[in-house]
Give the backbone structure.
Amino acid sequence: MSGRSGLRQRLDRMRPLFARGGRFEKFSVVFEMIDTLLYTPARPTRTAPHVRDHLDLKRIMIFVVLACLPAMLVGIYNVGLQANLALAGLGPATDGGSWRNVVLDGLSIGYDPGDLPACFVHGLLFFLPLYLVTLVVGGFWEVLFATLRRHEVNEGFLVTSWLFVATLPPTLPLWQAALGISFGVVIGKEVFGGTGKNFLNPALVGRAFLFFSYPAWMSGDAVWVAVDGYTGATPLAMAANGGMAAIHEAGITWQAAFIGTIPGSLGETSALACLIGALFLVYTGIASGRIMLAVVLGMVCATLLANGLGSGGDSAFSQMPWHWHMVLGGAAFGLVFMATDPVSAALTPAGKWLYGLFIGAVCILIRIANPAYAEGMMLAILLGNVIAPLLDYLVIRLHVHRRRRRRARVE
């Protein structure tokens, strides 16, 4: 008997205990979560949104996590790289006494910025605590609501937790991560009925809550480099204050921003890794290429307009080229993994184009009009989520009106 078939038989023997009337009926959602995580559900899906192919919700979520994996791996390495670069310039005493140093010393891994394993392990020591806290706290809310509503645990949280951590600074306190994911899951999704019924992206809702509640921990010079006593602004913040001249003076190149070796959030710095994820999502049919392309077009058009009208303007962003906007902040990560959320995005083909154009244009508008809030993409996507149903409604009404006019002409 193989290990796989043996495990399958054990789960089948345990199933009656968790079925209706069984001894552990109250924990049936937990059993189903574990069972369907290990094996494809035996029940075929006959209705939307998976009527087109064999993929169930769990496999779709796993594909999204896999697509995001390159961005997260580069981000973990980059966190360690930025910390080791700071330590190399300021000396190990700057971060002396931290438990992470004890772990690194115990593993005989130093702080050499040129040592890839050292940078990756150093970054992993910041990523793992944040992700484990997010997974445990957010998973608790998912299981709680599933138990109260007597339905299966939805797998959407796998993506929500992954994307939420990717948008966080590496130095965020763990209790704030727990608070943010709680707000995102409960207020952003569960109060509307759970997975598939939320009209806002839960990961962005949680991040927005933290940003406006604890701005000192979510933005500023000190939060992006995981070394005590070291301050260093992100290139996006530099541009907001001093324009492209500030970026050039800091020695930051477009290639470094494209690859992702610049200070920033845990998983948002590498536009190259996001591009790899985008190709995977479009190839597998999980995400809409229309939305991604529309966001890019919206950002390019808005940037070119700002470049033409911004000569001599007060905004430091007015003369930033569009290709720099694409690689700074969360622009690439947001347009690939956040804007394409099939639940909160527009659904009609024309609506997707309008939705993406709106997000791209609003992102640039926020950066130019309000340099104090240099990011822009997070708020633009949330605003896009709000108007997405309206865009679909207008597109459908327009099609209905055209058909009525065409029918009237034939008659």
User: Anything to note?
Assistant: The chain has three domains: 11-38, 57-218, 273-409.
